[in-house]
Every structure is written in C-alpha cells, then in structure tokens.
Design goal:
The protein is about 0% helix and about 45% strand. It has strands at about 5-10, 15-35, 45-50, 65-70, 80-95, 100, 105-110. It has a five-stranded antiparallel beta sheet, with no helix packed on it.
C-alpha cells in the first residue's frame, strides 16, 4: 500500500469518508485497510450504503447502516458484511475527529437496469388475420 487518506474535522462534527461507485451495486461486503498506526481508531465505524448524496445527512443518519467495523482480521484489515444495494458507500465514525484509511475494497455486483418498453398490443389481431 502506498499512500493513505486522512479526514480531519472540526470539534462538534464527526469524521466520514465516502466513495461514488458510479452505478448501483448489490454490495456483499467491504474490506477496510487502515494505516498501521491508526488501526484501532476505526473500530465502531459505521458502513452505510445509499443511492443519493444530495443531502450529506445520509452519512450520519442511523438509517442505511449495512455494518459496523468491529475487530481487525489477523491480516490487519477489517471485514464488514454488508448485503445492501446502492451507489455510494460511506464510512462514518461518531464522536471522532478523524478517519484514516489506506484502502477500501467494495465487493459486489452491478445491478442490471431493465429497460421499460411501451408496447400497444391489439387484442383483436390473430395470426389468421390477413
């Protein structure tokens, strides 16, 4: 891992980080790789998934939580089982002034968009009509 990201906020705010996946995904799980010296600061961080970020309050809303960071694996990363659908994934740490991450891997499948086709069917037509 090369560089890391560190989000620092003013007192009275809570630190967060989010990513736009570009499309809606069914998200199975999230892997979070912290900076070694900040590993323990990520415990109790909420992982949220939403489709709209027009209002930043989604980041701190109690809704949309797909999981919470608990303890690191023996390999040093955090695994969060998610099972959610959305375009944006955020990490939010209540009552914390910083979030430091080196890598976040979101695993899932792109949601297939179905086309809606308006078709008018004439119920009087049969294959015998000429």
């Amino acid at each position: 891992m090369g560089s890391c990201s560190r989000t620092v906020v003013s007192p009275g705010q809570s630190a967060y980080w989010y990513v736009d996946l570009g499309f809606e995904y069914t998200i199975d799980y999230v892997l979070i790789y912290p900076a070694t010296q900040y590993k323990e600061t990520l415990t109790e961080t909420d992982v949220r998934v939403v489709n709209d970020v027009s209002d930043v309050s989604f980041i701190i809303s109690s809704n949309n939580i797909c999981g919470t960071v608990t303890s690191a694996t023996s390999e040093g990363y955090y695994f969060v089982d998610c099972n959610a659908i959305g375009r944006y994934v955020s990490l939010h740490k209540s009552n914390s002034l910083e979030v430091t991450l080196c890598e976040v891997k979101v695993h899932g499948d792109k949601v297939k968009q179905c086309a809606v086709i308006d078709t008018v069917v004439d119920p009087l037509w049969t294959s015998n009509d000429v």
